[in-house]
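In line with agreed milestones, the collection of sequences with tokenised folds has grown. A representative record is reproduced below.
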Amino acid sequence: MNLQKLFLVTFVLVPGLAIADTASIVDAGDTAWMLTSTALVLFMTLPGLALFYSGLVRSRNVLSVMMQCFAIACAASLLWAVVGYTLVFGEGSAFGGMTAGFGKSFLAGVSSDSVSGSIPETVFIMFQMTFAIITPALIVGAFAERVRFAPMFAFCILWLLFAYVPVAHWVWGGGWLMQRGFMDFAGGAVVHINAGIAALVAALVIGNRKGFPTQPMPPHNLPWTVAGACMLWVGWFGFNAGSALAANGSAGMAMLVTHLGAAAGSLAWMSAEWIRFGKPSVLGIVTGMVAGLGTITPASGFVGPGGAVLIGLAGGFVCFAATLTIKRKLKIDDSLDVFPVHGVGGALGILLTGVFVSSGLGGLGLPEGVSMGQQLGVQLLGAVATIVWCGVVTFVLLKLINAVTPLRVTSDHEIEGLDLVLHEERGYDL
């Protein structure tokens, strides 16, 4: 039985498994690995993403980015416990099948004896919560240095509920994409396409930073960014290998291909930058790492080492080209390149999963009776559905919030810096 069928049986066909006897089902090794993976994924946001992003902005905005990441982590945690988990993984359905039901709101019925597969349900809840934390946190990189805290906070909470939750249910919670055989092992669509499209829409709706693209806006602390990138790389093992939901060969292969994809993406971006500009940069190599990781994420449980290297290389080169197109040709101020790295990388990875899953190319193998063309069709359908749903939801939410309270700070406040204007604090003496 392949992983896709196992996941379907566990979370769709046997929902009663969550109340089975703990002693007879829980595996100590699986549980230990999933506890570790959960901590690793949280580590990706706090402090990984917070350092990665805050090092890239100007010194007068460093604390504002850290504040956004921290506040989103807190709010997403509570929202997940109150209603997010049940709408993604609960029993029944709501909103015409767009989500699961409300039966586990406020984690009703969840106890230390509840199990999910071979691990305690509490561990599965926490693991999935960390995905719900990092996805909206990724978006803030698109509108860094120019958005007021209150509308940003409201947007991220509502976006998590109306964009992330439905897509996560479709893909992982027994929804229509999962039933069609859509392959997204660890979040190519749920996390990366979702966050990337939201970032692009937000950048377009909110507008460019004052002075972009003519005024240089160099990162204030690249060592912070590199440190954050290293944390992301290590944390990503929990993100991808943890998505096997067990300490087994699938987790081991996912970890191996994740590492290879990251390394290939780093070298691809470095090479492209070296050829284009004559010098390789540390910012380029760490951004290529993120591109490689985002691209291998949906494929990590389905492909072999050879496929991972090719997927990582494709991610590095394609995301590099996308970044230049967005900023230099289209002049869209996606401040920290969320769309070209995560959105483009996630979509590319979703499509390449349908190719390199083939056993002839070293992958796990296509589902019985499904051709590569058919699987690619399903992968494309899932990517497009995510893009359309997320794009519409993001646009509507931003317009509604802006009608109530302005999204942007004033021009004077943008020049003064968000740290002092919004938080009465300074990360650096200017």
Residues 3-13+27-407 form a domain with the Ammonium transporter fold fold (CATH 1.10.3430.10). The longest strand covers residues 115-116.
